[in-house]
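Data availability (excerpt). The following record was deposited with the supplementary files.
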Amino acid sequence: MNWTKSIRTRMSEKLSWENLLPSEQPVYVSSLVYSFGVFTLSSLVFCIASGVIMAAKGPLWYQYSGLGEFLRSIHFWSVQAFFFFMTMHLVVQFFMGSWREGRTVTWVIGVLSFGISVVDAFTGYLSRGDFFSQWNQVQSKDAFNGAGMDGFLNILNNGQVYGIHIVVLPFILFILVGWHLLAVRSKGVVPPYPARLKKKDGV
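Predicted structure:
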């Protein structure tokens, strides 16, 4: 069996249409704690859509036109919503033990997505071009150099930071989120912990 046939066979076994597009879900999925992942994904769609338009129009458009400032506000608040829901999703899934029953890969990919999102948000703050971003650039320069990243990343180079923010990190995040979703669809959502029944005296 060659590698293409092996991959096709494994994907067809684990990613059936019933797993990818289920028509029914367990009753516990209707709880709010299972909705933070969907809210995170919805906020990410607004982040990407507004970011693509801003990148296409350029900084002169979104800094000096009314419509551009409005879209810039949408991008800013969608990022706030994205991190709020993603943090809630991470905390809730941690206390639910979402790595149970063979879901370790799903958990690890989700944590990696959180880390890449933090770095992408940081490069976004550095790309604003105001005094706040310039101060952060200078202050973070020594940290990046001390981490040994000065050989391929100059945090004071605005063009390099902007390219990383709108191309490199979103591309990595897109792959991780897609992988995370496929893992969730393959293994299903993690069920709640079973209830602990109090033992009666003498039983």
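Summary of structural features: The mean pLDDT is 87.
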